[in-house]
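ARCHIVE RECORD
Type: protein–small molecule complex
Small molecule: magnesium ion
Source of inputs: curated submission
Record status: active
Notes field left blank by submitter.
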Amino acid sequence: MKSVDRHLADILATVRPLAPLEVDLERAHGTVLAEDVASPVALPPFDNSALDGYAVRAGDVAGTPVVLPVIEEVAAGDSELRAMGPGMATRIMTGAPVPAGADAVVPVEWTDGGTARVTVHRPVPAGNAVRRSGEDVRAGDIVLREGAVIGPAQLGILAGAGRRRVLVRPRPRVVVMSTGAELAEPGTPLGHGQIWESNSFMLAAAVQAAGGEVFRAGAVTDDPKRFLESLEAQLVRADAVITSGGVSMGAYEPVKEALAPLGKVVFEKVAMQPGMPQGFGVVGDDEVPIFTLPGNPVSSFVSFVVFVEPALRKMRGLPEGPPVTVRATMTASLRSPARKRSYLRAVLTRDAQGSTVAPVVGQGSHQLAALASANALVVVPEDVTELPEGAEVDVIPL
Ligand code: AMP
Ligand code: MG
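STRUCTURE (tokenized, with ligand):
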């Protein structure tokens, strides 16, 4: 049997980072920056007030209380070039430019709030409540580097530095297809021998959580011809395809029957539990990577975590590697099959004492409810068949 590491290495050797593409900021969330972005101007662009109050010279309010004439008012957005002399005050709002000649802002709370004259009750040091130009970013500074994942804060600084379009590696577009004559769409009645189709919803959400854009194709029956037709129709919009079901050893294995003859998808047994039957390769003229995952829901989920998510990371231009693990202490003993790496569904608890992990009841590869109650996978190495309570283990947080 092929090892998990070998299978992942083969996958990562095949998939490529997606080509960079210029997108509008509105489309950039969740993409990965493919250029260094510099700010064309200093940020803030001008000295401005951090609060509502009075712009003064700090020296004028050293001996309080002191009364100063209020010469004018300046609000955020004010575009006049203003200046004031000694012994004066300007009423100023948050974000408004500090007039030339002033070197500090007195909070309105430390004054009587006057409009013609103001009484200042407390002195302020020079520079008080003034946000200096360039204090966040100097003109020409790089604000975000190539390889940064664009989340909310990163979008904020891109916009804040005046960018409307950015060069990014886009979210991979992933088609999710499920196969099985027994599958009924959730929300429709269940006939005898049928189950509600769950994998495509689960895998679609997993793709989105992994930074992909997903197209959930309707489930197809166990006819290889129908499967191929549906696959071909979906390929136009795919950077990758995920199928579930139809790859085991029985009869009616449409994915295997349809793809094996094409010679570019390899079906093999990987030494893992759950998830032994795996297939990976490329399809279509564009050689789109295809992951043919086993149909058992927990198997397809674990296969996604172990193989597909690392591949999507590479496609997004992120550093490649296996799923990230943390160390935790087992709160119960467990058994694991020999010569297979197992991924046991578990609850990981982190507190001040450290991390502990407890396998959930229901480790069958069809037991989706047990999976849904877990928040982690305990990774048990191939050569380990038993772990006592108190053992230190590697855990993939979900
Ligand atoms: P297969 O890999 O097609 O032999 O399917 C293995 C098991 O997973 C069978 O019990 C299927 O009924 C079940 N299964 C396959 N596909 C799905 C799906 N999309 N949703 C829920 N269960 C599935
Ligand atoms: Mg099937």
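CURATOR ANNOTATION: The first helix runs from residue 4 to 14.
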